[in-house]
Amino acid sequence: MKFNIILASKSARRSRILKECGISHRVIVSNVVEKMDHKRGARFNVLHNACLKAQKVAQRYNGKEYFVIGADTIVLLGKRLMGKPKTKKEAKSFLRAFSGKTISVYTGVCVIDAKGKKSAGNIAVSKIKVRKISSEQIDKFVKISGPHDKAGGFSIEGPGTFIFDDIEGSFYNILGLSMMTLYNLFKELNVNLMDFAI
């Protein structure tokens, strides 16, 4: 396979998912400022941001044999859109709001064929139940769960396994990149993603 894959994301988790699936790739951060239009809803926002990221990086490789992947994730609580918390205090407020509720995780994925100048995009949605958690447990979770540069301010891995349960939909979508969605987008571009597997 001549083509190479570029992940236009600084998310270590997305890169790790690709590696775990044997997909060789380069990471080039788009540095796009993610936008949150609360009037347009989760579906619009995640796909819009994912495509902006992919387009920004694909421009550098116009006409060359690269597939560029962009992705963006938002958490939806009722009708409230929740992106990445800016502080630990905000991360705690997110968790208080999630306590005892079911939240939805939306991830938009966009793939651009830099040589063929074609693109495909779609959205994956998963639901996850959050058990009731006390303020003390929230403080402890935020303290030990590391950086909060993730939509909703949480990870379902590690300490998150004590809080999040009953997943409906793609587990990998909640981590930030639904591989089935990605596989189907490559299929739309007449490419078998498995051909990139090492």
Short description:
With 198 residues, the chain is of the alpha/beta class.
Main sheet: strands, sense, barrel:
7 strands, mixed
CATH architecture: Alpha-Beta Complex
Q: Class, according to the CATH hierarchy?
A: Alpha Beta
Number of strands: 7
- Average pLDDT, rounded to a whole number, is 88
Q: What global shape is seen?
A: elongated
Q: What is the H/E string?
A: EHEHEEHEEHEHH
Q: What labels would you give this structure?
A:
single chain, 198 residues, alpha/beta, Maf protein, seven-stranded mixed beta sheet, 6 helices, 7 strands, elongated
Report on the architecture of this protein.
The chain is of the alpha/beta class and about 200 residues long. The chain is about 30% helix and about 25% strand. The chain has 6 helices and 7 strands, in the order E-H-E-H-E-E-H-E-E-H-E-H-H. Strands 1, 2, 3, 4, 5, 6 and 7 form a 7-stranded mixed sheet that branches. The longest helix is centred in the N-terminal third of the chain and has 18 residues. About 40% of the residues are buried. The model has no long low-confidence stretch (mean pLDDT about 90).
Please outline the helices and strands.
Elements (H helix, E strand, L loop, with lengths): L3 E4 L4 H9 L5 E2 L13 H18 L7 E12 L2 E3 L5 H11 L3 E12 L4 E13 L4 H10 L19 E5 L2 H5 L3 H10 L10
Parallel strand pairs: 1-2, 1-3
Antiparallel strand pairs: 3-4, 3-5, 5-6, 6-7
Helix pairs in contact: 3-4
